[in-house]
Design goal:
The chain is of the alpha/beta class. Helices cover 39% and strands 21% of the residues. The termini are far apart.
Amino acid sequence: MKKKIGIVLLNYKNYNDTINCIKSILQQTYQNYNIVVVDNNSQNESINEINNYIQGKDNIFFLKNEKNLGFAKGNNIGIKFAREKFQCDFVFVLNSDTILNDKDSLKKLIDSYVPNSKLALINPMCCDLEGNIQLPYLIYSSKMWKYCVKMGVYLIKQFVKLIFNLDKYIKNKKIIVDFNKIKANKYVIQGCAYILTPDFFEYYTQIYPETFLYCEETALAIYIEKAKLRTITNFDVIIVHKEGGSSKEVLKDKKKQKLKYQVHSYFKVIKL
């Protein structure tokens, strides 16, 4: 029997991206899935637009939150629904601003799984609209606290930039890893698309729920390390990630709000 996949999409206002993402999923050759769209209390036309689009599509289910629960809790609503309602073996957490260009993406990802291999998470490669690969962030050591220190330094730099308005003079440089480091699993995943496997659900029922926006990938890495599980990246699957669809709606270019969410998430994650 084919493995059952629950695909969770979190929508916040950016319904055009969400609908385009759904369209790309519906073109997949692998068909044993259900899509769960979770709306995070969008105060725009999202409800009507998505409802209209999914009419007659029996494998798509639409859940509406009464308030904006943030990224982690919003996705957890969908994860729980997919697991309890459809008994899904796997859950594909997919940003709504992504596109599956390859019709075999789902099949290739699910075929990466080897049962009982301590494989918790399957990650595709991701690229932006210009075709630039978005690599995962490096875990600097097997000691997660060292990674958290590095993340804290990054937040201090963000604070200094904000206070002194140094955007024009200081450039953010994402610290990325080469392919050999990715193969060695020494990284935090690119969090716009990942599959949680049965091995993950042996230890956890959801992703870490205490962050609102940012650091969800770091929390996942800590979860996986604590359970002594593994992550892999499938290099044959490349997903287009437009970046920032929902987060831009939440932030609305408010730098202080962005820093607030980053700091809040950081202090939640270092408690893990």
